[in-house]
Design goal:
The structure holds 2 protein chains of 2 kinds. By secondary structure, chain A is of the alpha+beta class. Chain A has helices spanning 2-5, 35-42, 94-97, 179-191, 199-203, 287-292, 321-340, 405-430; strands spanning 71-73, 79-82, 88-90, 109-112, 126-130, 137-141, 147-149, 156-158, 171-172, 211-241, 248-272, 302-303, 313-314, 351-378, 385-391, 397-399. In chain A, strands 4, 9, 10, 11, 12, 13, 14, 15 and 16 form a 9-stranded mixed beta sheet that branches. A 3-stranded antiparallel beta sheet of chain A has the order 1-2-3, with no helix packed on it. Chain B has 3 helices and 3 strands, in the order αααβββ. Classes of the chains: A alpha+beta, B alpha+beta.
């Protein structure tokens, strides 16, 4: 049973389904196949939901009123504002536009929105635009930013065309929490963790250095059926035997074979679609901090428009749907286990689940950038990178504060010694 | 006082020290935190169905809980079955 006790990896023993093949892996060499079959295998996958915005293809977001390209997000709202004429307009909510919230109970097979398509192996990170104002070439490094300004004519460009490098999602959830608010939340969080915090951390603590980051996620709707089998016990009697030091309590119980089946749908489950962020190994990193500030109000996400990202850094998606599937299956199984818990309440001695099976009937994947305020601190020496993260919509704050080990150990030992001396005093006076 | 009770009392010091260390460490580092997707995701489930069959007794045990109780350990995977077992589907569970 050791395998059952190991937390599942993304493609690990926890997944009841076969490990999905790598992107493009067919098990056979297409070159050896007849042309008709080869063409079919190598043809691009269909895009089920096309969220591409043809009107933004040239990279310039224009104000619908005056045509200027200097567009920013109005702080604290979902509105875009033209810096030139101060016209304000709202991004279109993708929930209604593409029906992402509907028909989850009818999902069948895998539906992938156009921004969540597989990343092409040869897709370039650098995207070059020809400025429609002056003809100059402007290059944007999509690894970390999505907008740039033409240094000749000051046109502002955004990567809006859905280039197949994973950088352009279907939707974006704009920041609502302002920087001042985020700074005060981080300050408040650390204020409650100063006593045993690392000295260098306290000395260098400058929450004003917090940065606005859009992190890539896949937002998944799913329909699944789960079957679970195990054993449960109901206590029928308890009694004591023996005298004095040998007095023991015994229990009698009835043992039941239990089976449970649940059909359910999940709406907007967020999964990290960056390989680094999805690695939640707390011995090696503090990515679990960023994971903890989930969920976001993804229902309010608006259609992708790079203008929302001005002044923010971004992290590019580098995982495809097939690579995230095992993690989804694992989380769906966990959700099912939570769902059936109430149905086994009568087993007062608990339940030991022994087998579980899942059938994922349908999924829908939408790529989204979600807003996070991130304060980071690199612990000196071989220490890890500590994050304090604030959810850019809900303000939920979580962090990892490095610990001054000797101080914490000394305190623990002092308290232990104090307790022990009380125990010794009691023992000395009772024997 | 019995020897057993004395030993339990003597363990109080080391246990207290270790408990305090871990509690404070986790409060600072939050290594135990992650997204509680089981609770924080919108889930619509149809009524749970299933079966309960008495298969025997476990009499005279000193354990307070069933061995290997994992009813709340949602994220701990157990043996995977490819096809749903046939034992379920017998009726709705009412609490």
């Amino acid at each position: 049973m050791s395998a059952a006790n190991t937390p599942p990896g993304y493609t690990g023993p926890g997944s009841p389904q076969d490990v999905p093949p790598r992107p493009g892996e067919l098990g056979v060499d297409p070159a050896a196949l007849p042309p008709a079959i080869r063409d079919e295998l190598q043809a691009p996958d269909p895009v089920a939901l096309d969220t591409a915005a043809p009107e933004l293809k040239d990279g310039v977001n224009r104000c619908p009123k005056c045509g200027a390209s200097d567009i920013r997000q109005k702080p604290g709202s979902d509105l875009l504002i033209c810096v030139y004429c101060h016209n304000e307009w709202s991004g279109e909510r993708v929930e209604e536009r593409y029906g992402f919230g509907e028909g989850i109970d009818q999902l069948d097979g895998t539906t992938v929105a156009s921004g969540a398509r597989d990343i092409a192996a040869d897709a370039a990170v650098l995207v070059t635009f020809k400025c429609s104002g002056c003809g100059a070439n402007v290059t944007i490094n999509t690894q970390s930013e999505m907008t740039a300004r033409c240094h000749w004519c000051r046109h502002v460009f955004g990567v809006n065309e859905q280039v197949p490098n994973g950088a352009v999602p279907d939707a974006v959830l704009p920041f609502h929490v302002m920087k001042d608010d985020a700074v005060s939340r981080i300050r408040q969080f650390v204020q409650k963790r100063r006593l045993f915090a690392l000295k260098e951390f306290k000395e260098q603590f400058t929450p004003e250095n917090v940065s606005a980051v859009y992190l890539p996620y896949m937002i998944v709707d799913a329909r699944a059926s789960v079957d679970i089998a195990g054993k449960g016990e109901i206590q029928t009697r308890s009694y004591t035997r023996g005298e004095g030091n040998n007095r023991r309590t015994y229990y009698d119980a009835d043992v039941y074979q239990i089976g449970r089946h649940v059909d359910f749908t999940v709406d907007d489950l967020p999964l990290e679609s960056s390989r680094d962020r999805g690695n939640l190994d707390t011995h090696a990193n503090t990515n679990n901090i960023i994971n903890t500030i989930l969920p976001f109000d993804t229902k309010n996400a608006v259609k992708w428009n790079a203008s929302y990202l001005r002044g923010c850094s971004t992290e590019k998606r580098d995982l495809d749907v097939s690579q995230l599937q095992p993690r989804l299956v694992d989380q769906l199984q966990s959700i099912a286990r939570a769902q059936v818990e109430a149905s086994v309440n009568r087993y007062d001695r608990g339940v030991r689940w022994e087998q579980e099976g899942i059938e994922v009937r349908g999924t829908r994947w939408v790529a989204m950038y979600l807003p996070v305020w991130l304060y980071s601190y690199q612990q000196p020496g071989a220490g890890m990178l500590h994050y304090i993260a604030v959810n850019g919509r809900t303000g939920e704050t979580m962090g990892s504060v490095p610990v001054q080990q000797w101080k914490l150990l000394l305190t623990a030992l002092t308290v232990g010694t104090f307790l022990e001396s009380i125990v010794l005093w009691i023992l000395a006076h009772t024997s | 006082m019995s020897d057993e009770n004395s030993l339990a009392l003597l363990a109080l010091g080391p246990a207290g020290a270790a408990g305090l260390y871990w509690a404070l460490y986790r409060y600072y580092r939050n290594t135990d935190k992650s997204h509680a997707f089981e609770r924080e995701t919108r889930v619509e489930a149809k009524p749970v169905t299933g079966s309960d069959t008495k298969i025997g007794t476990n009499n005279g045990t000193q354990d307070k809980r069933i061995e290997g109780d994992n009813v709340r350990e949602y994220r701990r995977r157990v043996q995977a079955i490819r096809r749903p077992a046939k034992v379920h589907q017998e009726g709705e569970i009412h609490e």
